[in-house]
Description:
This protein is of the alpha+beta class.
Amino acid sequence: xxxxxxxxxxxxxxxxxxxxxxxxxxxxxxxxxxxxxxxxxxxxxxxxxxxxxxxxxxxxxxxxxxxxxxxxxxxxxxxxxxxxxxxxxxxxxxxxxxxxxxxxxxxxxxxxxxxxxxxxxxxxxxxxxxxxxxxxxxxxxxxxxxxxxxxxxxxxxxxxxxxxxxxxxxxxxxxxxxxxxxxxxxxxxxxxxxxxxxxxxxxxxxxxxxxxxxxxxxxxxxxxxxxxxxxxxxxxxxxxxxxxxxxxxxxxxxxxxxxxxxxxxxxxxxxxxxxxxxxxxxxxxxxxxxxxxxxxxxxxxxxxxxxxxxxxxxxxxxxxxxxxxxxxxxxxxxxxxxxxxxxxxxxxxxxxxxxxxxxxxxxxxxxxxxxxxxxxxxxxxxxxxxxxxxxxxxxxxxxxxxxxxxxxxxxxxxxxxxxxxxxxxxxxxxxxxxxxxxxxxxxx
Length: 444
């Protein structure tokens, strides 16, 4: 095998590789010999099939196998002999091959740059923190109380209004026939809740306890019960009681309704949730500051193949956003060349930071452990209330999804490592200051 370097510019490398015809022929004969021990043909014992018959039947497919294997071996040897660290999959082209002739082809690739991590200990970093404001705790308590409504009998003669509870008996008929599920007694209906067929609750407004009403409604065309789908229906309704609703009292009983022992415990849990929310914002701020420092503190050539791949991925998303009319006004006003220049800079930054992250992780043996992935999975699952188990099962069955989750986990571990080296100090700030910080990051 002959390997000749044809290009060495920056991170770009190119090689011409020649594999002699005799080597190819030898590999073909070896593979045919292996097949002779495996293949069974009528009239021949295993291992006794004539070589000319094997060559006649299988030479073409064997040649394809040998060709692919030889190219892979040539690429691997060029990388090994020249001690290369490819940044991406090498590209093979200019292939020249005919049976009985030398196999010639070229391989081009970008190599990874040499990176010397900056002195992170010299950075000045802060971990900003927001303590749960009492006003937000109280707002949350009031929201919980309003969602945990109590009711009490209304004053005699009160007409039903939106938000009231009507205690009713009802019976519905379609074409004179009463179908299952269309009648009930002592049913508590919150008027305005939208829990009944459209138009039903509105026709109860103004009614008083002791009244009877005949209500006519049309079921939706897409209703789940075939006989009721799109059907004109009549209901006879007896209003037995009107009850008014009110938010629950903010006390220990409210806490018990949500499964806690006391109001103090409920307040403590709410405060923790609020602080967790602001903690996530804080992590975003710290991460952005670390990434900005990494960007400013390192300078090296970038593998063009990685930049191009990153840019193409971004640009594909931009074109989809264009088609959907989802670009913001500032971006939509730019011409395509200007927009591409902006997003190429973003692609370059992402590639640069990714390479620095990899180098820091490798040099300091930072890896994603099983416990890290488990914690990340449960964090993500919380974003899908009521579907947590389905999400976890999907992730566990989808290796690609797990890999996509692993990357940001490693990135966060590197950010935490850098912050620790820099001795990041905690600083308590106000809610408004935190929001301003996050908004400034989003604008940037």
